[in-house]
Amino acid sequence: MSHVMPTYFNRLPIAFERGEGVWLFDQEGVAYFDALTGIAVCGLGHAHPDITKTIAEQSAKLIHTSNNYQIPLQEQLAANLCAISGMEQVYFCNSGAETNEAAIKLSRLFARKKNIACPIVITLFHSFHGRTMATLSASGTPRIQAGFEPLVPEFIYAELNDFVTLEQWVKNNKNIVGIMLEPVQGDGGIRIAQIEYLQNIRALCDAHDLLMILDEVQTGMGRTGTWFAYQQAKLLPDIVTVAKTLGNGFPIGACLARGKAANLFGPGKHGTTFGGNPLGCAVALTVIEVIKTQQLLNNVQQISTYLLDLLHKQFADEKNITEIRAKGLMIGIELNRPCLDIVNLALKHRLLINVVANNTIRLLPALNLTKQEADELVKRLTHCLLEFLY
Q: Model-level pTM greater than 0.85?
């Protein structure tokens, strides 16, 4: 009997001992192509030599002190993140859920400044913001909320890309203080927010003094081909959250704020024991440096186009594929049927993928994916899909 709480059902019958780039090796030394990268976490691939070197060197010097003291690496990382994002201030924590929790707390403090006693944040159906009580309440997904009622008030949910409804709600409800969304809904099936929709939200928030909060936990740090997905819409949010790729496997998250969202947190208003520790900050600084020096934003743009072309050509005549959606290296292949079982079948083809929204294969390969590796990914996926469908 396992002593681990069974919070994950149907764990796949495989364990990995080591990784190298896009490959993971099981306990027998068999190689598997990792097209999921720890759910968009290991953006530089596994065991990246620069990350390994940083962890070894920094851990030999200092891992943790506490936020009671100055942490120079934290200050350096905050400056770097503000430089690449256009934001002004950073709060560090350990995960995506925590950084979204911080964003929600900022919205409450913003509401107090406006003398709003019962603030409302609009979020979206099929969104995923985390599993803390506030973030699961913000997520417009009943599946993760079930059993945890009563939820944290108050969130109302709109459909992605339905700006008309958003505008009506904002005009008719003075308690709304912000709009929170993912530029690409990862868990929701790789559903992409339209550029015009994001721009309209920015204008709406400006007109009504609301916070535009973007959850870029999965899309941030280059996954869509720019540092942040919102940069493709040529706008700045008031709050943006990031984690996952930021640490390439080391737990770190960051909540970035600017303008009216800056300076809301004061001493005692929020905190963390481990967030922004020297080791985590050193790793994140290395991630940023590698993305810059290896020109991975450009690589994501080019390899995304190449990979998407491959997929469209390979499955042009496949009637069981409803749609292929992509934003950078976030790719969703929607089938005309539930396909949760394909994850197990993929193991037979030495391929690691997952399924979201019950019917969509999600691919989140490494940002430094090569054309040769893209070819191999499509080859394995093709064998897997054909076996599943026929």
A: yes
